[in-house]
Amino acid sequence: MRKVLAGTAAAAVVLSGGAVSAAEDPAAGGDDGWAPVPEEYWAPFDLDICGSTVTVTGGDVREAEVRIEVLDDGSTFTEYRGGQSVDITRRSDGATIDELDISGDTWELVSADGTEVLVELEGPSLVWAVNDVERADADEAGQPYFLHYEEGTVLLRLEVDPATGESLAADTLRADVAEEDEVDLCAVLDEVAADPGDARDDSGRGERDD
């Protein structure tokens, strides 16, 4: 689970605090540069979405690796791979999605000044929109604000405030996700709240915390 510093339209770009540290020593991680993500990568975080506050927490699958390269122009190219899952809980009613698979490969290119981001997320992945800029782009792309997809690829270009990570502009350059692979997680949380047995998630263990 990546620590979010920058949101997107229909998604959030994820810049791990540990990845920033690793960028200072790109050779760390062996001959091919891959290394386990740092522990802080798995720290829970909150999103204002689905009519409430939603907490995203690292799940039981924690096999993610990261590889980082600082390019000649000062930009940073970061890749993520490996199995990982998350648990999602809505604070207002305790509705929970358990062990959602987000193991798709991801890469991101961040400009030297941290204001421009290009990111590609392969499914299974999780993307969301939490401010007006992001929601407008999600609407234009025809995607739900809290999206999970099993297969496909989403490519996004962002302008962000490097101090806060907030998206100032967002553009979905490509969304190769079939409609049948799209899952609106806000709708899933609503189903869980109404009837825990109807919830859909990667493990089939949707539940409500009473």
TrEMBL record:
The keyword Signal applies. Residues 1-22 form the signal peptide. Keywords: Signal. Residues 190-210 are annotated as: Disordered. Residues 197-210 have a biased composition (Basic and acidic residues). It comes from the Bacteria. This is Uncharacterized protein. The lineage of its organism: Bacteria, Bacillati, Actinomycetota, Actinomycetes, Geodermatophilales.
